[in-house]
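Q: Joint fold for the lines below.
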Amino acid sequence: MKYMSEYRDPELAKKYLEEIKNTVSRPWSIMEVCGGQTHSLVKNGIIDMLPDSVTMIHGPGCPVCVTPLNLIDKAIYLAEEKDVILCSFGDMLRVPGSKKNLLEVKAEGADVRILYSPLEAVKIAEDNPDREVVFFAVGFETTAPANALSVVHAHRRGVKNYSILASHVLVPPAIKAVIDDEESTIDGFLAAGHVCTIMGNSEYHPISAEFKVPIVVTGFEPLDVLQGILMVIRQLEQSKSEVENQYARIVREDGNPDAQKVINEVFEIRNQMWRGIGEIPESGYAVREKYAAFDATKKYDVTIEEAPENPDCISGLIMKGIKKPFECTQFGKKCKPTNPLGAPMVSSEGACAAYYHFSGLVEA
Amino acid sequence: MQYDGRVRMATVLFGGITKEASLEMLPDAGIDDYVLVHVGVAISKVDEEEAQKTFKYLEEIGELGDLTDVDEYLPKTN
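A: Joint structure:
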């Protein structure tokens, strides 16, 4: 596909790797924030080809991984007890709740549907006027405009039987939290290209200046990731800490103003619980009062007791970049994509799933 | 491009398959543009000039004295 396959050229990738080797003079730790980049690094073998002095730390950028356990239990409750048509993205259905996941709930007869887009959920609501439809709306800034747009569509068309169970997380506050963590040793960041497609780069300038870290907005293909790493290392070697944009073919400095407008129309910033990490101030979106009729947490009484996390799962340490998936005693043993103990083993953006499928550490 | 009476929608070709995408957040997009679509919504248009930079970066930073034929790495147009 144009603008994708060219960025997988192995010969140019080798040149980038060579240049990275020639540029590095001492050890550096770089966090790739987005799980999509983690998968690109592991799947394409980049992680093994980088010089030993370059350590990639995998960040928390996996939306289903950080969706609170309690919210999954709420979604399950809505599907089982309230007889709603519960819709979400595919990965979300396989993430374990405290007792089971949404796919098991579906197998037991509840109406749980996997959708490609939240806009489809509004259509389902229109087609089923005597049923309630809830979209389990998870995601980073990239997904927020589409989820917000579904609410705007429903509002505009007078669809009363549609609401969203929102769990939105924001990248810049998470980067700050990761840098602030005492155990953190991160020298530079690859910021998530698709998040910046929406929000632009302006939020990263104060972080880069305050914490003296280079931040390079980076794409997802092998050459993108390699170029992003080289750009971070060049800055580190020159003692610079700037915001650069590797992914300028997609990311504009100001992001997408039309997308920001619809986000602000529907959502307001709130403190947000990140599964495995804890609460991060001003790191999520709540549905505004104006659209309360489309907020599933207000439409239904969904107070579910907080359940304990599975003690065998170290996903919090994985997502903060403190441990690697293969350092977990359950990795590939009790915990596999077919029987995940935690969300990072489920998601197409989860670090554990990336290592399970592509690292060669597990016999398939 | 078509208008379904409610929102501006586009038919987008992804490799071999086509899907509908909303153009509400990309009002300037038109026929033959390359767009990034996320969960059914087009969110960015590819900047063709910027798209070449990854192929020229090593040359630009002046570290690739021995790579004379950079064109070899440029994407073939169509």
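Q: Anything notable?
A: The domain at 2-72 of chain B is CATH 2.30.30.140 (SH3 type barrels.). The longest helix of chain B spans residues 53-60.
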